[in-house]
Amino acid sequence: MAAVLECVGVEKQYKDFALKPVNFVLEAGYLTGLIGINGAGKTTLLNILSGLDRKFSGDVIIGGISLKRNPSAVKQRVSLVSERITFFLDKTPLENGQILGKYFDNWSMEEFYVWMDRLEIPKGKQIYQFSKGMKMKFQLCFAMAHRTEFILMDEPTAGFDPVFRRDFLRILQDIMEKGTGILMSTHITGDLDNIADYILLLDHGELKINDTREALEDKVKREIIQGYMEKRLHIGELLKRNGDRKNDIL
């Protein structure tokens, strides 16, 4: 499959935090899980990949187009589903589609209707009245009507009940079968057990793990990730505890 995203030496320096050079490639039709505790750098990376933060070193290539050189063209090829909703909250889903859809080359109002029906979005209700989970579902509808090659998701299942969470993950599988690439940041690592193809783990601004999910199903590796996510232990300490397994994990 063709690459939908290439992260090439992406780094960002703040006063008290640094995202160290990050390199990885994501392919069309696959889902990559991005994990890491709060402060690991996930939000910083997602802001860069989505084009919200353009002051960074390195480059991001989406659909063969450089974010640094042609940000407007990249915006046509990527969608963001996030808690930081950027739609008109005082307007309905239909009004948002009618106003914002015209800014996207591949926008389909028909597709928008199809996905709103599938996810049971109330078309005449204002966005600010939506629950957290409903806002996420609405954004996914918009992303699918946008018909992009790549979707970034920031904690998309956090507001869902367990039943719909399973349904939502099945929906993501359908989306991937259409050839869309997905990068999903989540604290709920169980969501990735059956759906993720690749796992990225950020720790203190450094990409520590970049591997297939199957390769990380080894018991020792799973314990390291679980200890990191649940006990908030530094990944370096966990790797030391596993001694000679370190080189196999990184």
Number of H/I helices: 9
- The best one-word shape is globular
Helix content: 25-40%
N-to-C CA distance: 25 Å
Shape-level CATH architecture of the largest domain: 3-Layer(aba) Sandwich
**Chain-averaged pLDDT:** 85
Q: Please state the CA-atom Rg, rounded to the nearest Å.
A: 18 Å
Strand fraction: 15-25%
Describe the structure.
With 250 residues, the protein is α/β, with parallel strands linked by helices. The chain has two domains: 3-77 and 149-249, Rossmann fold (3-Layer(aba) Sandwich), CATH 3.40.50.300; 88-147, no CATH class. The protein is 34% helix and 24% strand. The protein has nine helices and ten strands. The chain has a six-stranded mixed beta sheet, sandwiched between helices. Strands 2-1-4-5 form a four-stranded antiparallel beta sheet. Helix 4 packs antiparallel against helix 5 (132-146). The longest helix has 16 residues, at 162-177. The radius of gyration is 18 Å and the shape is globular. Mean pLDDT is 85; it is low at 243-250.
Nutshell version of this structure?
The protein is of the alpha/beta class and about 250 residues long.
Write the layout of secondary structure elements.
Blueprint (H helix, E strand, L loop, with lengths): L2 E11 L4 E10 L3 E5 L6 H8 L7 E6 L2 E2 L4 H5 L2 E4 L11 H8 L8 H10 L13 H15 L3 E5 L7 H16 L3 E5 L12 E6 L2 E7 L6 H13 L3 H7 L4 H4 L1
Parallel strand pairs: 3-8, 3-9, 6-7, 7-8
Antiparallel strand pairs: 1-2, 1-4, 4-5, 9-10
